[in-house]
Amino acid sequence: MDIRPLSEQTLMNGYVFAMIMREPRFIRPLLEAVVGRSIRGITMAEPEKTQVPKEVVSDIIGVTLPQFENVLSLIKEHPDWDDRQIAGAAQWRKYGKYGG
């Protein structure tokens, strides 16, 4: 597994982006850089307390629960992989609404 140090990560890494967006002190400078304007303040939304069951998510995206759980385990095992690598390892194209 290719694990890169945090200093080599970019915002293109979904995990790094998610971590930054959880920290109000980082959000404001990031948004100001993106929009090119000064922002007075940031109000954080409260995270939802409910979690959608895996069965519902797998049904929504059109795959079986075991296929969905396989993808989740690949994401946990390979946090450095991008979506295409995860989909390839899971043979995602064979399944679901978007498969071929």
Walk me through the topology.
Elements: H1 14-21, H2 24-35, H3 54-61, H4 65-77, H5 83-89
Question: What can you tell me about this protein's structure?
Answer:
With 100 residues, the protein is mainly alpha-helical. Helix 3 crosses helix 4. The two termini are 28 Å apart. It has helices at 14-21, 24-35, 54-61, 65-77, 83-89.
Order of helices and strands: HHHHH
Number of domains: 2
Assign an overall shape.
extended
**Termini separation (Å)?**
28 Å
Question: Percent of residues in beta strands?
Answer: under 5%
Structural class estimated from helices and strands: mainly alpha
In total, how many beta strands?
A: 0
Given as residue ranges, the uncertain stretches (5+ residues, pLDDT < 50) are 95-100
Mean pLDDT: 75
What would the keywords be for this entry?
48% helix, mainly alpha, 100 residues, 2 domains, disordered C terminus, extended, 5 helices
